[in-house]
Design goal:
Its EC number is 2.3.1.1. GO terms for molecular function: acyltransferase activity. This is Amino-acid acetyltransferase. The chain has 2 domains: 268 residues, Acetylglutamate kinase-like (Carbamate kinase, 3-Layer(aba) Sandwich); 144 residues, Aminopeptidase, CATH 3.40.630. 39% of the residues lie in helices and 26% in strands. The longest helix has 22 residues. The chain is an alpha/beta fold. α4 packs across α5 and α7 packs parallel to α9. The strands form 6 sheets. An 8-stranded mixed beta sheet has the order 5-10-2-1-13-15-16-14, with helices on both faces. A 7-stranded mixed beta sheet has the order 17-18-19-20-21-23-22. The chain has a two-stranded antiparallel sheet with strand order 3-4. It is built from 15 helices and 23 strands. The termini are far apart. The model has no long low-confidence stretch (mean pLDDT 91). The protein is elongated. The structure holds coenzyme A. Coenzyme A binds next to β20, α13, β21 and α14.
Length: 428
């Protein structure tokens, strides 16, 4: 078999579990105006939405249009203003506003029709008045006029639309109950919509500036930490807005709008392509079982070769598997640690390792905490370990350097003087 065929089969196998996971799930996707201004991005997206639709996902698209509106107003010779980053929309802008959004919507529908013409079951893109607007009002003495804010969402109506097999499209246009036209911020709409319909995922395309230096995954506490010191104002605005929807939406994905494959990579590969903000637990910390031996070996063997960990044979690992706890993510063992009891109320921590791709997310600290809890349950009052490379990390986690003489007698007699490991002890 050729390498390309093998790669294809492996990729298909790897993604099959995600195909099953995502079937029937609801996904709100935010498309900023910059993203839809690229013809290539839109035609790729239209095809990908067709694929997702046929894999059973329910999809709401929320289309922004800031750069297109800026251009349309400038071309019409209309002087438009921003206040606190929000556009003021006077009555005379409304016809140009409606015309620009109508045109964009039509272009998107045309792309959809073309991209999905060969699909046996092509999705239909529909828009409707699911979002009810109200005036943003007068702020700092400035009347925002037809700039609106979201008043309510007809969530049952949009859920019915998705259940009937259609892809829903929201635009910046929304109407008040008095029949007035309003210009609504679309990122806000996407977040509120995802919350209102309890979407499984909110997927947000953003600029490289907005995504600058963001890690691959963020728990909500980590997100809050970054929001205290964002890389720039653009990032701050994006993170603040999406953080509002964290309560009802379990997973928010931030994707690079310049990467046309970002959506599929994010949904169907283990590590995705952007940043995942999760409010549920994305990984599982649990006692190891015999089925985990292969996964643990895969994790620790490279560290054994580097001399960071002491070599353990498969047989020894099988015998000692009950001493281990592991962190599993999407059926991959990404962390492990072992605990050994001792007669002298001193328990030993060993074999702590986190997969290099997942380091720096406090998973090591989480494993250490779990080991400490287990050690206390074993009635140990001190935890010790031997390390050649990592003593600083342990000192930062409450351990102190100690002399070999503090070790339990049996451990002292086995001490390998060639390895010159440092001894660290923590009182529990
Ligand atoms: C040590 C280890 C378990 C930490 O896991 P982790 O999930 O990355 O840990 P955390 O996210 O809680 O901590 C990350 C911090 O530890 C620091 N760190 C990682 N290895 C370190 C080391 N050897 N010495 C000092 N600091 C270290 C990182 O630089 C990072 O610092 P920052 O927060 O200032 O950026 C992981 O780096 C690992 O598996 N290392 C290789 C195996 C190993 O040394 N095991 C211990 C043998 S007993």
């Amino acid at each position: 078999m050729q390498q390309s065929e093998l790669d294809f089969i492996n990729t298909l196998r790897q993604s099959s579990r995600y195909i099953e996971q995502h079937r029937g799930k609801t996904c709100v996707i935010y498309l900023p105006g910059d993203f839809i201004s690229s013809k290539d991005s839109i035609s790729q997206l239209s095809q990908d939405i067709g694929l997702l639709y046929n894999l059973g996902l329910k999809i709401v698209l929320v289309m922004g249009a800031s750069p297109q509106l800026d251009l349309a107003f400038t071309e019409a010779g209309i002087d438009w203003k921003l206040h606190h980053q929000f556009r003021i929309t006077p009555t005379e802008l409304i016809p140009v506003f409606q015309k620009t959004i109508g045109l964009l919507r039509s272009q998107l529908e045309a792309n959809f029709s073309q991209a999905n013409c060969l699909q046996p079951n092509p999705p239909t893109l529909v828009s409707g008045n699911w979002v009810i607007a109200q005036p943003k009002g007068v702020i700092d003495g400035i009347d925002f006029q037809h700039t609106g804010k979201l008043r309510k969402i007809r969530h049952q109506a949009i859920s019915d639309c998705l259940d009937s097999g259609q892809v829903a499209l929201l635009t910046p246009i929304a109407y008040s109950l008095t029949g007035e036209v309003f210009n609504l911020n679309t990122l806000e709409q996407a977040c509120e919509m995802a919350s209102a319909i309890s979407a499984d995922k909110l997927m947000v395309y953003g600029s490289q500036l907005q995504l600058k230096e963001l890690p691959k995954q963020l728990s909500v506490p980590q997100l809050n930490k970054i929001m205290l010191k964002p890389a720039n104002d653009e990032q701050s605005r994006l993170l603040k807005q999406v953080s509002y929807s964290c309560q009802n939406v379990k997973r928010i994905h931030l994707m690079d709008q310049t990467n046309p494959s970002a959506l599929l990579l994010e949904l169907f590969s283990r590590d995705g392509s952007g940043t995942l903000i999760f409010s549920d637990r994305y990984h599982q910390l649990r006692p190891a079982s015999i089925e985990d031996v292969g996964g643990i070996l895969g994790l620790i063997e490279p560290l054994e070769q580097e001399g960071v960990l002491v070599k353990r044979s498969r047989e020894r690992l099988e015998l000692e598997i009950d001493n281990f706890v592991v962190i599993e993510r999407d059926q991959l063992i990404i962390g492990c640690a072992a605990l050994y009891s001792n007669d002298e109320n001193m328990a030993e921590l060993a074999c702590l390792a986190i997969h290099p791709n997942y380091q720096g997310q406090e998973l090591g600290s989480e494993l250490l905490k779990a080991i400490e809890v287990n050690a206390v349950k074993m009635k140990a009052n001190r935890l010790f370990l031997l390390t050649t490379h990592t003593h600083h990390w342990f000192i930062e986690h409450g351990f102190n350097l100690a002399d070999i003489s503090v070790l339990p007698n049996k451990k002292q007699s086995l001490y390998n003087y060639q390895r010159q490991s440092k001894v660290l002890v923590k009182t529990l």
